[in-house]
Structure formats: structure tokens, C-alpha cells
Task: inverse folding
């Protein structure tokens, strides 16, 4: 059951993953993703979008090899994934820079893991720090940088090991809108320059429409692929392009249905009731944009 | 300034309460004794003996405590077996080990070293364990995604991340070790600051006794300032915790 049509970088075949929640007697098993099949082509920018609990981070961790599927298989370049590795790097929402290392040494971290010698480490770190425009700050310590700068260092650290696939798990979700706009532009440029395969998880439709070639809309509980929407506009994109804005509005409309459904489904569940009713009371249109400033 | 205030309080207390009493020494007499002790080198020799002893004892505790803490952090079985024991033993004043130490090693240098070791082992191993356990998930995930091996993860991520907690354990361990050392020396009257105290008491030389106490406290504070507090400060600045 391998999947290797040429040009396919990552493929998921019937992937199912369960998780346990709670401890002891209250522990419950729930399905995070069910029977997901998906192909990511070489050099593609793919966005995974969906409400919370749709298993989008789980899918990313499965591709990264940080989690193992219960059923099905994840393939990377035609071979089944058997663990994490520097060819599929994850960038997390929290940059996770090491506070005891300078910016430069942080970027060198992955290169040290690979066992490169000092000179090559320095050279590469300098190259990728320049790519994210932070050469000036190579001797700074992480706490001296702003949130956006930290995430750029994390990006440089990931790019420095020259991965085949970049897996980004809501990397800009914790940043303010202005910083996020800048990083969108920067990521777009980086992608145009390096043409890495990128799988980008986000809850923001706007982000997905701006950056990606294809948007995979996920449904929740259990997570499954609901719809795959191509974004046919060429890069670099003008983020204010009316066509882009319209596509976003269309997708949001679809999402609203999903959200209504979710709210109704969760009405019986005590824990989710409050969250659901708050969202349900929000005026139409902002319902899904609570956290993305749409 | 602070020193002057306390000296004044001391002198006043002496004038009011202790003038007739032979149990209480005025500051002048104590500093006289301190000066004499330094001049005839008896204080310096005792201090040197104590410092050598604590260097050995604390050094041993540092090595063993780190290894023990590492084991407790890495192996669930080890922690289940020994964790509560280490924690329990930590609540025992380390001088309670003295009889056992004498039984095992005889009344000698090694018995005192053992007491010092037992005094600081607990804090150091617990701090190592807790520091390693509290390594933020974000760092661990980064290590995972870069495919770091177990050794790389330990050396480059877990140990540095555990460093701040480890330092505070060292600091605590140091003060416990110093206390244990003095208790041990005091009880058995060997050469050293503790021995000096016992001797001064036996000779009813109270000024000398207080002078020795001043030395003991000063050394403890000085070492803390020079090493442990400085390390702590360094970590705080590096981690950006002092900036806030």
C-alpha cells in the first residue's frame, strides 16, 4: 500500500490515531483523526485548517514521526515514517529557543546534532540568520528578542539543517497581527526562494489563503478531511487581492456550518457546553474569527 | 553602617544585661580575641582544616548527588525505590549519622566527611532530579524534531535546562554541608572551627568562642556570595529572568 507517484513528498494512507484523556478511572479514549488519506507534493505549500479538536496538530506530529499512527501508514518520499528526523522539521507555536544559548548557537543546534564541524556550523548559521534578517542579533540572547524575532530564529534554526519538509504548527498564532503580517511576507519569500515543501497548520483561514497552494479543511471529532480547496493564485501574492478576500469569505461560510454542527453536538457534553454557547452567541461572521482578528 | 548599628546594640545589651556576667562578652573583647586568633594563626589553621574537609565532603556530595539525581530522574524504578527514601533521609539532621559513621569508619576524618556528605547529598540529588524533570516540554519537542540522540538530548538540552534548579540545590546543599561539618567537628573536637569552639568553651574563653562563631558565619556568607549567589545571578541574567 505504498504511495509513490512521482513528485509526492508526503502521503498519509488511512491514518487513524487515538488518544487517552484524563487519568485513572476517568480516562477516556477518543479518536483524534480517523482514516485520513492525503498527499503532499514536492515543493507544495499545504495548509491544514480546522476548528480546535480536528486533529490538525496530530496529523503534523504523525508526519514528523513524533507520534505513531494506530492504523494506516505515513510515507515520506515513498518510505514509511519510523520516527523523527531532521528531514521533516517541526516549528511549534512556542519558538522553544534555548535561553542559555545565543541566537547564533541556537541556530547551530540542529547542525551540532548532525555532527557538522565548527566552521561549517558557523557558516550555515550565518547564512540562515541572514535569510531571516537577524544577522545583527546573532550575539543576542533569546530573552532580548521580541516574539516575532524569536520565531524567525526558530525558522532559521529549522532551515539551517536543510530539511526536505517544513512542518509548521500554528507558528504565528501567539503573535500580534502586525508581526504576523510581516512574518507572512517573510515566509512567502523564504518559500519562493527555497521551494521547500511546507505543511502549515493553522486555525486562521486568512493565513491559509494568503500562503498556501491548497487548503485541507478538516472536520472535527474525529478529525477527518472534509474538503480540499485549491488556492490558484500565483506567488508572491498581494494579501489584499479581492479574489483572495472572497475565497476567504467563502471558506469561512462553510466553516460556520461546521461550527454550528459542532456546537449542537457538544451541547450534551458538560465540559464543552460553555465554550460552545459563547461561540454560538457571537455574531455571525466573527464566530470563527475569534482568535484570528478577521 | 549596618554593622555599626548591630555593634552598638551589642554593646548596649552588654552594658545593660551582661556587665557582671562572665557568660557574655563585649564586642571589644571579642574582636580582641579575633585579632589574637588571626595573629597567632590558630584561627587560620582551624579554618583551613575545616575548609579542606568541606571541600572534600561537599565535592563528594556534588558528584554523588548529581549522579543519584540523574538516576532518579531517568529511571522510574530508581525513583520509586529511592526517591521517598532520599526525601525522608533529608529531613533527618545529618549529625544523627554521626553514631553510624563512627561505627562504620571509626572516630576519624572519614566519619566527619560522611556526615557532611549526608548533610548535602539530599538537597543536591533532589535538585538535580527536579531540575531534570521540569525541563520545559517546548525544549524537549525541539530536541525530538531535530532527531537528537539520548546523549545529545541530555548534554545539550536537559542538563543546561536543569541548571537553575540545580544551582539552588547546590546553594542549599552548601549551607547544610557547612552546618553538618561544624556539628561533626564540635561533637568530636577535632582540629577545625568546630574543634576551636569546643576548646574555647572548655577553657571558658567566651570571647574566643564568640569570635570563632563570627568566623563561621562570615565564611558561610562569603562562600555563598562568591560562588553560589554569583552563579545564580549569572543564570538569572542569562535566562533573562532578572530583566523583568
Result:
Amino acid at each position: 500500500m505504498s504511495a509513490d507517484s512521482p513528485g509526492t513528498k508526503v502521503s498519509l494512507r488511512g491514518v487513524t490515531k487515538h488518544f487517552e484523556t484524563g487519568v485513572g478511572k476517568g480516562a477516556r479514549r477518543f479518536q483524534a483523526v480517523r482514516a485520513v488519506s492525503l498527499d503532499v507534493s514536492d515543493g507544495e505549500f499545504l495548509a491544514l485548517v480546522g476548528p480546535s479538536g480536528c486533529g490538525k496538530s496530530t496529523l503534523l506530529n504523525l508526519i514528523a514521526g513524533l507520534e505513531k499512527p494506530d492504523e494506516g501508514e505515513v510515507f515520506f518520499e515513498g518510505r514509511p515514517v519510523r520516527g523523527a528526523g531532521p528531514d521533516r522539521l517541526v516549528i511549534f507555536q512556542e519558538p522553544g529557543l534555548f535561553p542559555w544559548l545565543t541566537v547564533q548557537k541556537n541556530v547551530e543546534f540542529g547542525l551540532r546534532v548532525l555532527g557538522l564541524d565548527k566552521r561549517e556550523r558557523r557558516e550555515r548559521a550565518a547564512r540562515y540568520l541572514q535569510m531571516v534578517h537577524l544577522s545583527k542579533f546573532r550575539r543576542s540572547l533569546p530573552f532580548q528578542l521580541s516574539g516575532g524575532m524569536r520565531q524567525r530564529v526558530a525558522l532559521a534554526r529549522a532551515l539551517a539543517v536543510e530539511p526536505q519538509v517544513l512542518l509548521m504548527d500554528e507558528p504565528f498564532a501567539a503573535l500580534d497581527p502586525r508581526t504576523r503580517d510581516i512574518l507572512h511576507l517573510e515566509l512567502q519569500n523564504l518559500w519562493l526562494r527555497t521551494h521547500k515543501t511546507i505543511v502549515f497548520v493553522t486555525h486562521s483561514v486568512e493565513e491559509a489563503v494568503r500562503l498556501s497552494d491548497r487548503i485541507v479543511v478538516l472536520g472535527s471529532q474525529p478529525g477527518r478531511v472534509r474538503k480540499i480547496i485549491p488556492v490558484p493564485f500565483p506567488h508572491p501574492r498581494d494579501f489584499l487581492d479581492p479574489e483572495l478576500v472572497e475565497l476567504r469569505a467563502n471558506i469561512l461560510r462553510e466553516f460556520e456550518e461546521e461550527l454550528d454542527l459542532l456546537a449542537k453536538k457538544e451541547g450534551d457534553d458538560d465540559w464543552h457546553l460553555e465554550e460552545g454557547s459563547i461561540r454560538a452567541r457571537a455574531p455571525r461572521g466573527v464566530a470563527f474569527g475569534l482568535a484570528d482578528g478577521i | 553602617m549596618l554593622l555599626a548599628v548591630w555593634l552598638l546594640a551589642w554593646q548596649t545589651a552588654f552594658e545593660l544585661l551582661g556587665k557582671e556576667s562572665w557568660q557574655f562578652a563585649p564586642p571589644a573583647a571579642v574582636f580582641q580575641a579575633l585579632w589574637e586568633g588571626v595573629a597567632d594563626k590558630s584561627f587560620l589553621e582551624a579554618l583551613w582544616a575545616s575548609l579542606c574537609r568541606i571541600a572534600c565532603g561537599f565535592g563528594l556530595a556534588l558528584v554523588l548527588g548529581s549522579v543519584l539525581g540523574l538516576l532518579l530522574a531517568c529511571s522510574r524504578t530508581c525513583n520509586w525505590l529511592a526517591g521517598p527514601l532520599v526525601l525522608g533521609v533529608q529531613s533527618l539532621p545529618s549529625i544523627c549519622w554521626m553514631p553510624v559513621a563512627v561505627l562504620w569508619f571509626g572516630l576519624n576524618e572519614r566519619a566527619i566527611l560522611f556526615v557532611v556528605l549526608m548533610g548535602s547529598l539530599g538537597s543536591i540529588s533532589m535538585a538535580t532530579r527536579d531540575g531534570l524533570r521540569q525541563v520545559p516540554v517546548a525544549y524537549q519537542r525541539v530536541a525530538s524534531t531535530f532527531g537528537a540522540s539520548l546523549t545529545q538530548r541530555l548534554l545539550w538540552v536537559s542538563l543546561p535546562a536543569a541548571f537553575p534548579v540545580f544551582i539552588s540545590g547546590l546553594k542549599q546543599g552548601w549551607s547544610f554541608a557547612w552546618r553538618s561539618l561544624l556539628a561533626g567537628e564540635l561533637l568530636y573536637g577535632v582540629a577545625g572551627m568546630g574543634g576551636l569552639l569546643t576548646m574555647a568553651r572548655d577553657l571558658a574563653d567566651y570571647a574566643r568562642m564568640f569570635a570563632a562563631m563570627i568566623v563561621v558565619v562570615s565564611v558561610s556568607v562569603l562562600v555563598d556570595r562568591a560562588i553560589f549567589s554569583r552563579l545564580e545571578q549569572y543564570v538569572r541574567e542569562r535566562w533573562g529572568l532578572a530583566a523583568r
Chain A is about 35% helix and 25% strand. Confidence is low (pLDDT under 50) at residues 268-294 of chain A. The first helix of chain A runs from residue 56 to 64.
